[in-house]
């Protein structure tokens, strides 16, 4: 017997539904909360903002935290969307195989928009983490300048702006 859903207005989006749908919706809510939390943290960590000082690498820590929050949001959304897609495709094949008339499950536009959002969140996380981690290792792993390079830099700063002599 097929479960038929009507167009009644639900009291809650998380009640009276199959467990897989409730978990999918809950994971999408978690994804939204992680990503919304990551945006202000990312703004605090930008080099061009002056909300916090850069003492003790606070902006670096904010950027890394925003990257981790975006990554957690992207992963939560990816798990939810993958779970929903597998469940929907299985229901579709079952209905087509049994020849159930009138009821069909398909992936709609909201699924594809949510997929795009999860991919964007995960991409933002990977870019933030890779740029910050690569930038921090090059600064820490940089060799001190040689005496000749230090002398050239000192001469350039003594010449003043806009004056370069070879």
TrEMBL record:
Localization of this protein: Cell junction, Tight junction; Cell membrane
Main location class = other
* Keywords, comma-separated and alphabetical: Cell junction, Cell membrane, Membrane, Tight junction, Transmembrane, Transmembrane helix
Annotated region (Disordered), positions in chain:
137-166
Q: How does it sit in the membrane?
A: Multi-pass membrane protein
Looking at the UniProt entry, the stretches that span the membrane are 22-44, 64-86, 111-134
Q: What Pfam families has UniProt attached to this entry?
A: PMP22_Claudin (PF00822)
* Gene Ontology MF terms in the entry: structural molecule activity
Domain of life (superkingdom): Eukaryota
> Which InterPro entries does the UniProt record give?
Claudin (IPR006187), PMP22/EMP/MP20/Claudin (IPR004031)
Q: Which GO terms describe its cellular component?
A: bicellular tight junction; plasma membrane
Listed PANTHER family: CLAUDIN (PTHR12002)
State the similarity comment. Answer: Belongs to the claudin family.
**Name listed for the protein in its UniProt record:** Claudin-16-like isoform X1
Species per Swiss-Prot/TrEMBL record? Geotrypetes seraphini
Q: What is the lineage of its organism?
A: Eukaryota, Metazoa, Chordata, Craniata, Vertebrata
């Amino acid at each position: 017997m097929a479960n038929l859903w009507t167009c009644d207005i639900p009291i809650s989006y998380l009640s009276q539904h199959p467990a897989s749908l409730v978990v999918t919706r809950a994971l999408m809510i978690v994804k939204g909360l992680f990503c919304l939390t990551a945006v202000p943290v990312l703004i605090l960590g930008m080099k061009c903002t002056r909300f916090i000082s850069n003492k003790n690498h606070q902006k670096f820590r904010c950027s890394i935290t925003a990257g981790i929050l975006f990554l957690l949001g992207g992963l939560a959304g990816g798990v939810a969307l993958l779970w929903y897609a597998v469940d929907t495709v299985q229901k579709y094949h079952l209905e087509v195989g049994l020849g159930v008339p009138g009821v069909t499950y398909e992936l709609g536009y909201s699924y594809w928009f949510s997929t795009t959002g999860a991919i964007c969140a995960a991409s933002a996380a990977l870019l933030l983490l890779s740029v910050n981690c690569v930038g921090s290792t090059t600064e820490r792993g940089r060799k001190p300048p040689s005496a000749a390079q230090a002398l050239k830099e000192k001469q350039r700063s003594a010449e003043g702006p806009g004056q370069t002599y070879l």
